[in-house]
Amino acid sequence: MLTTAPRGTRDILPEEAAKWRYLEDNIRECCRLYGYGELRPPLFEHTELFQRSVGEATDIVEKEMYTFEDRGGRSITLRPEATASTVRAYLEHNLYAGPQPVKLYYMGPMFRYDRPQAGRYRQFSQFGVEAIGVQDPAIDAEVIALALDLCMHLGLKDLAVELNSIGCPTCRKEYRQALLMYLSEHKDKLCQTCLGRMERNPLRVLDCKEEGCRTLTTAVPQMLQYLCTECAEHFQALQRCLEAVGARYTLNPAMVRGLDYYTKTVFEITWSGLGAQTAICGGGRYDGLVEECGGPPTPGVGFAMGLDRLLLALEQSGVTLPTASKPAVYITTVSKDDNQEAFTLLTTLRRAGISADKDYRQASLRAQLKAANRSGCHFAIIVGGEELERGAVAVRNMISGEQKEVKQEQLIEVLYESLKEDAR
Ligand code: HAM
Q: Which of 35, 84, 91, 95 has the fewest Cβ atoms surrounding its Cβ within 10 A?
């Protein structure tokens, strides 16, 4: 137990971390282009926030939250998602009083007590955006375009966008009746959880993963047929915006998403190469959420993308991702007596902005040069021997194999020049 991370969590080692940094850099750039500012909410919140926003009858709240009582007796939950936190922050900092929409993005770990498998973890990372304060269907299109542009820029092809509208409280009332009637006629096929959910929120039954409930939901009444004029117009306008920018999508009238706060637009972006966990990104509009959390009636729309899955998809589709950085210079010594000289030189190079490392094992020069090779450095420097007596060091270009003697006082200049030249 002491030597393994908890189930569903994992370490990201330096080679892997380089890929994550690359993703994160691209995300930040994309958000800059689209005008989203970074929000860094806390990793835990009051449990009630998720119960109220994500919804009591959802899988997340019913089965997946990491909830505990803190030492002050408060019920705390590790965030399973960050839309709720974003809305809480929007209210806490009176962001509704400024210009609208407020466009925010976040990145970081989320926690769900899910059944771990490839692409599904108990601690996973999401990148999400939220645009709060406007109704314009063009902003629904904006968040979808942002997600697609990011994936396209990273080199991920063949994504599928599935789109649906689940209406507003007004049109959902009539739909709820029709759905309840249908479900009551097929009660015998519903799982235990859904029998309970039926009364509280029948829409949740449509998101159930149980075999019986799934067979049933294929013939179920569809929300699209019940949309009120406003919701239908919003949905049409969104589709026109997507078409105008060449964002291809398919309608999936059966999609309801696993969180209760959605109204109108819902969407998912999938990549079929991921096996069972194909959803890379999911989102939608949540026009009642700010009010539900105690604020003024305020619309909002956003998405979250699973970065673990995005990375898996990029790797599986053969996109080349950066590897961990290598030192420009690796310092070796002729004998043990040169150790301090080597350490001083190492520090001087680093302070001059040249990435450098040295061999710390006091091994033979041959073994040190082998290590230099393995480090992937550009130049190996050999400190000691006659060169040192002459106030110089030997500099070996590990790419061309060429070696030359360089005076210590000229070393930084020579390295700057050679590194610049070889980078061309
Ligand atoms: P979600 O669909 O629950 O939506 O999660 C979004 C994405 O997070 C999923 O499509 C998936 O890529 C990733 N994800 C979810 N659970 C796991 C897991 N256990 N392991 C790995 N990846 C996972 C939300 O979280 C909403 N807050 C999205 C949103 C933002 N809607 C509006 N604004």
A: 35
